[in-house]
Amino acid sequence: MEDYVKQKLSLNQGETVKLTGHKMKGSLQETDLYSYDILDSNGQKAGTVEYTHHTAIKSFRVTQSVTQKTLDGVTVVNDTW
Fold first, then answer.
1. pLDDT band at residue 22 using 50, 70 and 90 as cut-offs
2. Residues pairing with 70 in the sheet
3. Can you tell me the mean pLDDT for 15-31?
4. Long-range Cβ contacts of 13-18 (<8 Å, 24+ apart)
5. Can you give the residue ranges of every domain in the chain?
6. Displacement of CA 53 from its chain's centroid (Å)
7. Could you write out the three-class secondary structure of the chain?
């Protein structure tokens, strides 16, 4: 995960982020969807992160978003830029 994306997350001391999946969608594969697990200092899953990187086909405008959730499904971070 890029550092500028990781800075948007609310991680506790000792937590790390591990990539668990990646897929592309759209007629020209213009959207990248990344799935991550948040692991605590013991390696146990503490939450999830979904990161989306979309490039518009005509204007090449880039939109990114990140959503961090707890294991209970509570949204901690939901940011788009």
1. very high
2. 47
3. 97
4. 13/41, 14/40, 14/41, 15/39, 15/40, 15/41, 15/46, 17/49
5. 3-80
6. 9
7. CCHHHHCCCCCCCCCEEEEEEEEEECCCCCEEEEEEEEECCCCCEEEEEEEEEEECCCCCCEEEEEEEEECCCCEEEEEEC
Asked whether the beta carbons of 19 and 38 are under 8 A apart, the reply is no
Token output for 6? 């990781």
> What was the pLDDT predicted at 35?
98
HSE-CB of 75 using CA atoms within 13 angstroms: 6
Other beta carbons within 10 angstroms of residue 51's beta carbon come to 23
- Asked if 50 and 67 count as a contact pair (C-beta separation under 8 A), the reply is yes
User: What torsion, rounded to 10 degrees, do the Cα atoms 52, 57, 62, 68 define?
Assistant: -10
